[in-house]
Automatic annotation (TrEMBL):
Family of this protein: Belongs to the class-III pyridoxal-phosphate-dependent aminotransferase family.
Keywords, ordered alphabetically: Aminotransferase, Pyridoxal phosphate, Transferase
MF (Gene Ontology): pyridoxal phosphate binding; transaminase activity
SUPFAM superfamilies: PLP-dependent transferases
Protein name: Adenosylmethionine-8-amino-7-oxononanoate aminotransferase
Length: 466
């Protein structure tokens, strides 16, 4: 269908202005100079449309975030109503707004265990940043100022601020032009069975990962480690699904050593894995702190949250100390963003989207698994609406194509021509579509990917790369 607003856009002018003025996230200077960008002007459900009128099924889900789908009139109304009534009000010190209070109460109800305390942020990075500052504050309050080091993992992604990027462990995110913090941050191995298990069974691999954690604690000293930070399933690190029982075991180690467990659910919450939060429902863990964003508003407004336990609250908020948690963003508790989150949650509950996501998510997993038989597919990893196809030059040895070939991009471009967007990350195609996907839309994704992979194989052969 033609875009409702399409006529307003002059794509040639947009391309020029984009090249002249707009520096994107993860801007690749040479590529952008030559090719410009795919300029999106319209969206509905799981579909988006570019400035030239080409329509795509967006299997990327924006950026892991358009969970309930785009263009919902109810969301538009909720955002417009709130903007009309109260577009902004600050949430510092003794100020609050009704929407931020209602959302905090709702998040406390949805979060596991005694995670009843909510700090609202502007997105995922600021939620993780807040979590680390909260760990510092908490440890200082309880008289353990030395207990602040953080353990994370190779391939982790926790955001794009100086601190959160330093916590991350993706090699591709650490180009030599950027600086990183290294003091007090330790990276454990990535729980990546396909590449790291190296012939060991899943159970043996799990034991090795837990043993590595214990060894690192012994080396650094439990009295110096404040927190362990982990995504339930690593997202931009390549949809890494850890061995069964991994998070539960890591959590038990944390509890034994008085280490706070921070679950970074920026991607995995609000339906992406078929639950509001995956930590307990999917992985049997009740974290001390959960960070969330993205699906919290399904991308309709920028918003994040750092949700933490009553146990932490009791320490930091001890009566009579006169303390102030001197941390806050101008847009913390933004009433319009909170109104969007409340409506988003209402829709997820009213339309029973979580059980539906689990059901269609299983179908998505099954259909994607059929791609594993294709010549250059090394592994297909999928859990509900987080999925990834990993390409290899040799299925037996799992050898990768040369990085500069950018194999993920080959498949992505061929899928794009067929009306499907997947996210290429070097040798991967990553997917996180709207969790409202129909069975037919799942079929479309898998059929187009299959054709695109087969075409890639032919083109690789023709070009002498394979
Ligand atoms: N944490 C995780 C697990 C993420 O995947 C992301 C973003 O992709 C972030 C944090 C950062 O969120 P934001 O981009 O909203 O700052």
């Amino acid at each position: 269908t033609e875009s409702k607003r399409f006529s307003k856009f002059d794509s040639a002018r947009l391309i020029d202005a984009d090249k002249a003025h707009y520096m994107h996230g993860y801007h690749v200077f040479d590529d952008h100079r030559e090719q410009g960008s795919l300029t999106i002007v319209d969206g509905e459900g799981a579909h988006i449309q570019d400035a030239e009128g080409q329509r795509y099924l967006d299997a990327v889900g924006g950026m892991w975030c358009t969970n309930i789908g785009l263009g919902r009139e109810e969301m538009v109304e909720a955002i417009a109503d709130q903007t009309r009534r109260l577009a902004y009000s600050n949430s510092f010190c003794d100020m609050a707004n009704d929407r931020a209070i209602e959302l905090s109460e709702k998040l406390a109800e949805l979060a596991p265990g005694d995670l009843n305390r909510v700090f609202l942020t502007t997105g995922g990075s600021t939620a993780v940043d807040t979590a680390i500052r909260l760990v510092h504050f908490y440890q200082n309050c309880r008289g353990k100022p030395e207990k602040k080091q953080v353990i994370t993992r190779i391939n982790a992604y926790h955001g794009s601020t100086y601190l959160t990027m330093s916590l991350g462990g993706k090699q591709a995110d650490r180009p030599p032009e950027f600086d990183f913090l290294s003091d007090g941050i330790h990276h454990l191995s990535c729980p990546y069975p396909y590449r790291e298990a190296q012939g060991r069974s899943e159970a043996e691999f799990l034991e090795a990962l837990v043993a590595e954690f214990e060894a690192r604690i012994a080396e650094v000293g439990a009295e110096r480690i404040g927190a362990f930070l982990a995504e339930p399933i690593m997202g931009s690190g390549g949809v890494i699904i850890p061995p069964e029982g991994y998070h539960r075991r890591m959590w038990e180690v944390c509890r034994r050593h008085d280490i706070l467990y921070i679950s970074d659910e920026v991607v995995t919450s609000f339906g992406r894995l078929g639950h509001f939060f995956a930590s307990e429902d999917e992985f049997g863990v009740i974290p001390d702190i959960i960070t969330t964003a993205k699906g919290l508003t399904s991308g309709y407004q920028p918003l994040g949250a750092c949700i933490f336990s009553e146990r932490l609250w009791e320490v930091i908020a001890e009566p009579g100390t006169g303390r102030c948690f001197s941390h806050g963003f101008t847009y913390s508790g933004h009433p319009v963003a909170c109104a969007a989150a409340l409506k988003n949650i209402e829709i997820i509950e009213r339309e029973a989207l979580l059980p539906r996501a689990r059901e269609v998510g299983r179908y998505f997993e099954e259909r994607l698994a059929t791609l594993a038989e294709l010549p250059i597919v090394g592994e297909v990893r999928a859990k509900c609406f987080m999925a990834c196809v990993e390409f290899v030059a040799d299925k037996a040895t799992r050898e990768l194509f040369p990085e500069e070939l950018n194999i993920g991009e080959w498949v992505h471009l061929r899928a794009e021509r067929r009306g499907l967007l997947v996210r290429p990350i070097v040798h991967l195609n990553v997917m996180s579509p709207a969790v409202t996907l129909t069975h037919q839309e799942v079929d479309f994704i898998v059929d187009v990917l299959r054709d695109s992979i087969l075409e890639t194989v032919e083109d690789l052969r023709a070009a002498g790369h394979w």
